[in-house]
């Protein structure tokens, strides 16, 4: 369900590869949500959220280094949005996740999907226009 589409390609290989990885991590959570053979998904949810947060930090550092290298004028806005993403991923309460695992997965997936698509289409594609 979650996949990198051609419309999200920036043409910057490193950024596109890392965006692809972020979609793959989101897809893990989607598959977990729909896996009926794992009744208690709590540990898996926390693992995927942690992986997503950690990989996003790596990606953001790489993307910001690239923007700095090309003297990208909108880098400050990007940094703020990147920090907000990490903060949001850090804000998920393990107790709330455990109390309603399905709802937690759906909330996280909705956030990730909206953020990735909007951020890539509205911000990251502009990096390639520099």
Automatic annotation (TrEMBL):
Signal peptide: none annotated. Residues 10-127 form the Hemerythrin-like domain. It comes from the Bacteria. The keyword Calcium does not apply. InterPro entries: Hemerythrin (IPR050669), Hemerythrin-like (IPR012312), Hemerythrin-like_sf (IPR035938), Hemerythrin_metal-bd (IPR012827). It holds the Pfam family Hemerythrin. Keywords: Iron, Metal-binding. The keyword Transcription does not apply. GO terms for molecular function: metal ion binding. SUPFAM superfamilies: Hemerythrin-like (SSF47188). Belongs to the hemerythrin family. This is Hemerythrin.
